[in-house]
Each structure stands twice: as C-alpha cells, then as structure tokens.
Amino acid sequence: MNYLAHFHLAQQLASHSGLDRQGLLIGGLLGDFVKGPLRGDYPAAWEVGIRLHRRIDALTDSHPRVTECLDALPTNFRRYGGIMLDVCFDHCLSLRWDELHPSPLTHFTQDCYQHVLPNKDQYPRAAARQIGFLADYDVLSKMGDWDNIEGMLARIAKRIPRESPLSYCGPELARQLPYIEQQFLALYPALQEQLFTEFNGNGPS
C-alpha cells in the first residue's frame, strides 16, 4: 500500500479503536523513513503509527492475493513489482473512494495534510520533503488519474540508482488493472479487519 491507503487505514483504525488519529497518520508517513527498533525516539503515538505502517506492509507483502498479482507480472517486472502494486493499489482505492469513505477524497487528503504537516520539522529530512511535496501538489487526491500513476512510478525510478522498469511499466500495469483491482477489493477489507483485531491497544511491537 502507498500513502493514500496508509492514511486511510490509519484514520479507519483511529475511528475504530480510539487510538490517536494524528499519531497514526504521522506514522503512516514515517514508516517509510524510520528504520530499526522503536525505542522512544519519537512520541509514543507516532511510534504506534509507525508500527501500524510496518504491519500493513508485512500483511500486504505476505498476502496470497499480492503473490498472485506479482506472479502475473512479466518476469522482468517482478523485482520491483511490490512498488508497482503499492501505487496501483492507491489508484484502486481512489477509484472506489466513494464506496469506502463518507467524505470526498479532496476533503480527506486536506485533513491528512493538516494533521501531518505541522510537525514536519521533527521528521527525518526525507520524510519532511515527501509530505511537503504531497501537500503542495495534493498528490493523494489525484491518484485516480492513470497519468499521475505513471508519473509517480517514473519519479520513483529516478531515485533508484540501478535501471528499473518503473519508468515504462505503465501500459502493462494498465492492461492488468482489472485483475489487480479484483485482487485489491478482496485484500483490502480483510486487511482492515485484521488490523482492527490486532490494534486494540497499542498493536504489535
């Protein structure tokens, strides 16, 4: 899952469990940038959010639906297939947004930025740059546009030192999108239920 899904799952869990919403949203960002054991370097609510982010990634990466999607990709795509699917899943979520959330997507994304931006000076530098970029261009509200998906994959490709198919995989992913969406729609509610079950208190350590 990419940022839109991480933020959506964080908000859903906060509503379900009573956990700190802002902390879970911040962790939804920081989970990509904070590595290693969590030892209290950040506020406790943020670290719960980071653990949530890590758990979402672990459950998604190990899910049979994701494995089936990866197996359907061309062989030369599979090394980077996880990145491709993360971005595609955000696209699928955006397309189904009105079925999954009561507020318009643009309202949701602005609310997320307002919760996450104020503390950016306390984030790792790369995380502060990322949330600034997402907010300045309201990237998350535009994930339903396939051109933006291809653009995001191309930007990720520029950050990878070795050659990758991320800059040209768009047409093949678009061809497979009905299958990817089918798998996403089976995966996502199961993922929500699993997280609701696990994060009754502070969640897995």
TrEMBL record:
<keyword id="KW-0378">Hydrolase</keyword>
<keyword id="KW-0443">Lipid metabolism</keyword>
<keyword id="KW-0276">Fatty acid metabolism</keyword>
<dbReference type="Pfam" id="PF04336">
    <property type="entry name" value="ACP_PD"/>
</dbReference>
<dbReference type="GO" id="GO:0008770">
    <property type="term" value="F:[acyl-carrier-protein] phosphodiesterase activity"/>
</dbReference>
<keyword id="KW-0444">Lipid biosynthesis</keyword>
<protein>
    <submittedName>
        <fullName>ACP phosphodiesterase</fullName>
    </submittedName>
</protein>
<dbReference type="GO" id="GO:0006633">
    <property type="term" value="P:fatty acid biosynthetic process"/>
</dbReference>
<keyword id="KW-0275">Fatty acid biosynthesis</keyword>
<dbReference type="InterPro" id="IPR007431">
    <property type="entry name" value="ACP_PD"/>
</dbReference>
